[in-house]
Amino acid sequence: MSEKVVVAGVGMIPFSKPGVSPSYTQMGAEAVRLALKDAGIAYDKVQMAFCGYVYGDSTCGQTALYEVGHTAIPVINVNNNCSTGSTALYLARAAVQSGQADCVLALGFEQMQAGALKSHWEDRPRTRASVAHIVDDLTGDVDLPQALRTFGGAGREHMQKYGTRMETFAAIRAKASRHAANNPLALFKNVLTTEDVMNDKVMWPGVMTRLMACPPTCGAAAAIVCSPAFAKKHGLRSDVVILAQSLVSDPAESFEPPSMIAYVGFYMAQRGARQVYEQSGYGPQDVRAVELHDCFAHNELLTYEALGLCPVGGGEQFVLDGENTYGGQVVTNPSGGLLSKGHPLGATGLAQCYELTHQLRGTAGKRQVEGLNIALQHNLGLGGACVVTMFGRN
What we know:
Elements: E1 5-12, H1 24-39, E2 48-52, H2 60-65, E3 75-78, H3 84-97, E4 103-110, H4 133-139, H5 146-162, H6 166-180, H7 194-198, E5 202-204, E6 208-209, E7 219-226, H8 228-233, E8 240-248, H9 260-263, H10 266-280, E9 289-291, H11 297-306, H12 315-320, E10 331-332, H13 337-341, H14 345-361, E11 374-381, E12 385-393
Parallel strand pairs: 2-3, 2-4, 9-10, 9-11
Antiparallel strand pairs: 1-7, 1-8, 4-7, 5-6, 8-12, 11-12
Helix pairs in contact: 3-14, 6-11, 10-11
């Protein structure tokens, strides 16, 4: 069993607003073609595919891949909420590492609908049904869409517990806009100040403005992973590897004692990160770039602490000291993150992989993190699933 799995090629299309994007078949197929071109191999060299999406009928993965070719490979469709793309990558890596296949495709795509996320199955229990009362119990004083109540509630809890100010979340959003300005694939490239974010439409007084939440978008991204032997045989680049990876679901402390910070995945992220640090032999002090799940600015701050980038309760000082950007301890979301790219659920995890692959190759242009050898990815799906991945230069 090989310890390292090579990221031989990545592809990503620009994300777009719902209603103006191509179909998921077109988006998915184009991301695959870009990844194949980047890897320098033909589709018939791919031996297996894992295709991630949340909103779609069964076998959408095959439908997208049939636009690329008909090679009879096994195609497995993946749905793990917002961590779907990274779960597809997790499965692709596992297939290569176990020797089941030498070259595997991970694809993520999403054709989103406008507006707040919602269930499309109203005649059965919703996900996390047995513990959903926690949100009602702790945020029942506000009438807001579920996602805003959930992540805004976690942010408010951090504010109440540690004295974190709303301006700190606004500063995280402003930082994201500065990073996105150098990313041609970011949907929102306008540079914002902390004051701009604070003066935007208020969604939750004292807690959140509209700009602190990522918008739904449509898009696709893909990665080709392979064994070192396959890369050598076919003359593929092997300078970026996956060093370690974890996929965890909710531990008991996500729900007991009741806490919004716990409910939004803090302990999933913490446990997943610790597993990856142990597997790889690297710790948070070694990480200089991280793509993390900033579906809300509030969750970015919580994730700093969960990943061990700063002490628990130290997220605000981490931001105030500029440790989350260029010139600081670790560049968080050099791509601009979900806050600037948007969040097509099935594609997000593989878009993070795309960014970190280019960062480790040294091909990220104006947003390049200099001297990068180790990079971390965090992708969260409530319900729950959290994937943490450690990438490195080979």
